[in-house]
Records
---
Amino acid sequence: MSYPRISVVMSVYNGERFLKKAIQSVLAQTCANFEFIIIDDGCSPKSKQTIDNFKDQRIVRLDNQKNIGLSASLNKGIALAKGEYVIRMDADDLCLPDRFQTQINFMDAHPEIDICGSWAKKIGHGTSYIIKQPINHESIKAGLIFRATLIHPSVIIRKTSWKKYGLAYNPSFKKAQDYELWTRAVKNCRFANIPKVLLHYRKKAKTHSFDINGNSKMYSINIRLRLLKELGLNPTKKEIELHQNISHFKIKGQLNNIRDCENWLTKINQSNNQLGLYDNTALKQLLAERWYSLCHSNTSLGLALWKNYHRSTMRLNLKSNFIRQIKEIKLFSKSII
């Protein structure tokens, strides 16, 4: 009995608006050797009808008796996947036609890679820009300190690695389940991102209930807090808030806030120097980029901001002297204007 090389796994819950185009983008792939597992996680009658309208034999529909959430649905779909590779897809995104073939070619050529994402074009709500994730494993791993460095619906996963390392989404995470998974998987798996747009990634509308009670934010905070504690840090409430704001580039206003950021980023670097959890060069470059971006968004503070940036040794860790010089010219120009 022959098995498909790929199992595409997509969970559907109240996604009828864009569902048809999402399914079409999967079925229109240049690589046709796949099964398409669609989990009906209590979706609307319109979504059910949309799925039923497709008669493609590659579609395998799984019906949950009740809504069990994204994490549990994906675990269910991946457990039943027959493919050598598992590809993630969301019900409101769009695959570019060569996505599957590009990712298979990459994984075949790089057997050391367990999980691989790609760059993506952000669409929806008047948005259109390219999300460029770090490419190599060490940079992806270091970046997890601040955010998910793999775009969830862009990933391809080696099924043998999923089973070997006992990977699964944590059902208690209703949001940021991919971020939480990556921070555990990176301890055993090697990651990569293909520097090519293979997905149109739709900007999600904010969920009202999560915005009100703050639960969505708390998932990410708890993930970051765990990573910081693994680095030997025991951040205060102020430092947790500072780290969260740095992660979202939300540091504004006063020079003292900028200095607090510099001190916190330095503290992270010092802890890693002692424990060596992250590649030293990758982490230093990451922290330098964060430091520059925070300063660049606060040039309204004028020359005082520039002087504070220029005296910092952190700036010397940018990828190259040429890049550093170009960035510093831009920063200085904006500061004096």
---
Amino acid sequence: MERIDVAVIGAGVTGLASALEIAARGRAVCVLERHPRPGLDISTHNSGVIHGGIYYPAGTLKSRLCIDGRRLLYDFCVRHHVTHSRCGKLIVATDDSEQPRLEALYRRGCANGVEGLQLVDRRFIARREPAIRAVAGIFSPETGIVDAEALVKALLHAAEAAGAIFLPASPLRSASSSGAGIELRTSRETILADTVVNAAGLYADDVSKMLGGETFTIYPVRGEYAELVPARRSLVNALVYPLPHPAGHGLGIHVTKSTAGAVWFGPTVRYQSRKDDYEDDRLPVDAFTDAVRQLLPAVMPADLRLSGSGIRPKLHPESESFADFLIRRDRQNDRIVHAAGIESPGLTSCLAVGRMVAAIVEGPTD
């Protein structure tokens, strides 16, 4: 049996950033990943946006870690040569009736400490995005885009350089606790860990149960995307969002131009039972047309085709509108540290989440 200071379950951006920070503080750490490669679930099934921090209630982990994480992420991308762009984002009101909601969102963003936010008029929007229909907007200059797959690779390389051990194709099969630590069993080996970080994404609730931790529920929520055909990508220059859905279920079908130049529309919101169902009963491309044309009237149905999909690990049911990240010691087993429910802005926040997790690991257990 191998002994380790800290075992991290899950090699998405949350787990890898946590392992990087823990290893940098001198702890022996390994990362167990069920897939043969890191980041194959949530981390690379999203739009790759580096969020400014506008949307989240002030004082929440989502708000604070998004802003701190954004700064850390831009610096990391520069140092590790990860493709990214601080391209800025427009959040737009498409008619005058949306102006009060736009102004309320602007005030929230300012209260959260998001740098450089501007209320802008139709002329400003037309200069940046001539094809977008809008009467007013918020411009967030600190918002950007990152190549998520390149980020995952860079985090893995940085974590390994700091001494972390990556164990691919090693799903957790069972676990048990004793006074000596938590015994983790995979199909290949048994590891005795002083502390276990639960960064298992969509399966964090299952892993908590397996570890003998507290009970909580991860609700899998699928988001689907459409995209512009290559010949029409010049219609969009950067990032354009509608106002968030009033019910709180997502930020609406927004426009993202990736670092490779693809233009995506999405994600949609669908609560579902399965955590691995990305493709069954996909929406037809026609389901995106009306929402896309609200922002881009020049787009015709023939300009769209289906793109990828992702699944968010939400901590609240469909009847509720918000749940914060779950980042703390388990209340039943203090050898477990949770980093669960890390949906948007989880990619942006990953390095700040990693720092918080590492601080909890090093901190008192009572």
---
Amino acid sequence: MKKAIKIILGVIGITLVVLLVLVVVNYVQHNLVASTGSNGNYEMAYDSANSTGLSAGSGGFLSKTMNVSNQVRHESAQEDNGDVEAVIEDRMIIKTGSLEMVVEDVSVSIEKIAEYTGNIDGFVVSSNMYKRNSIPYGQITVRIPVEKFSASVDTLKQLGEIKSERVDGQDVTEEYVDMDAQVRNYRATEEQFLNIMKKATRIEDILNVQRELGNVRRSIERIEGRMKYLTKSASMSTLTIDLSTDPSVLPTIEKSNKWKPIVVLKTSARALVEVGKLIANFAIFLVVFIPVWIVVGLVIWLGIRIYQRNKHIKNPKEPQVNFRG
């Protein structure tokens, strides 16, 4: 009986120790190791429209009209070049900015930023909050009208202590002007193909013109889509704000390889408190599940008793016989 109880207690004790070790190790891995973060960047690939041409076997009718189409596009390009200087005077700049600041309350600051952005006709692109090394951390990305960008940055900087500030500008004026010229050229080509369609009589010529006309229109749609993206990006600036109650977890600060014993001490103290909470929670869990442990212990004890009884029945002890002379 005593042996069975020792076995039960040993099994339960080993299980509890293993569970506790796993809990502590899991917490340390997620909270003591420095978290790495990066601002979300996106790239929008753009493929310039391919020049459309007529196939060599499209017939003499289309071959003659190809030179006319190319000439029209060349003349249109020359006319557009005269407007380039006037367009460039009004530069198209895509502004992006980033702020890193220490605040008293991350969630409250994010709510204030979102409310302010809505009041100036902007909108929130993304917002998230979590913990780095047990320290509250948040990031919010907003789009702000470009004419209000500078004033908005100055206003939002008052929410906390600024640790890092950056503003970038990308000049896309030449790209926009170039695409506008391409669209004008394709429009002229489209008009020529429509005229060719009216004069074509053979089915082969009509099909070839329709195919080339479709290619021209797809190119126009692709370029105009990129132009709309540039226009929208230039009218609405992007601002990304990183917030925390401790500067050590901000992206720019944490990239530094300099040893910071104070930061390590604070992190270790927070981890110790959290591990203590986990141990207390684990103890409460064990107490609440005492009935389960009793049932498990009884099942193990009954199993051992049945095993010993069956073993005794199969191998009964032979009576000892004493021989006396």
---
Amino acid sequence: MRPKASAEAYASVWTDEGSPLLALSRRLREALGQLLDMPVAMAMRYGQPDIESQLLKLAAEPGIGEVLYIPLYPHYADSTVTTSVVAARRVIHDHRLKISLSVLAPFYDHPAYISALVAGARPCIDQATREYGSLDSGATHILFSYHGLPESHLRKADPTGRHCLQHPDCCERPSPAHARCYRHQVLRTTACFAQQAGLAPEHYSHAYQSRLGRAKWLEPSTEDSLRELAGKGVRKLLVLCPAFVTDCLETLEEIQIRGRDIFMEAGGEDLELIPCLNHQPQWLQVLANWCRSTPPGQ
């Protein structure tokens, strides 16, 4: 049944340019290329253009000896960052390309990334509070919805083998495991955003979306949170999805369409998806600065 459901979901957000993710990623690449004096390529982990074709294209450029590889995932997860980097290194090895690969590390709490998030969300927050009431009143609320992950993935990625999900406050206790802990990193993004935006704890909450299968996933779920917040009297819900830097099926269909229906059926008045960074000017400048300075990677 999954292919049919997926096809219907994609159809609801398809554009004249095709997939929103692909179209927006192309615009990001084109805009970034205009800011830099170096070649810029864009590839998909699954789909076209693929990593192999784009690395081969860059390797053929005269004078290119190093590629800065930016996995566009702010937070670490084996299923995203690791598989992407492994795929890129395999291409270089298999084709014996004479280029080195520098990989940008997860940037979940980088001040420039957080500033771009806050700048993108501020107009939506200001407009919502003018129309529905302040965050202090409880009429307007912000939900940080992150892509979900099975708890087993966190345990597997824990290099210590004894930290992640072993204590109620494991994400607050300092540990080497945090360098690879998805949950710690998304909580850090939320905390950094709240601090920079001046949000009080009661102004926002966080949840995890896109569950699949029967394994135990991180909680709370976004669907449950949508119903719970509506039941608590939230009239206007702003949803931010920082696990994605580009709007895609998981934001445009799962949140903006299905999530909005769930929230309103539960008694809420309106749900607004705060757009991802996409090709926002401040985000483009952040990426350009990283490309110029080749920041520490992995």
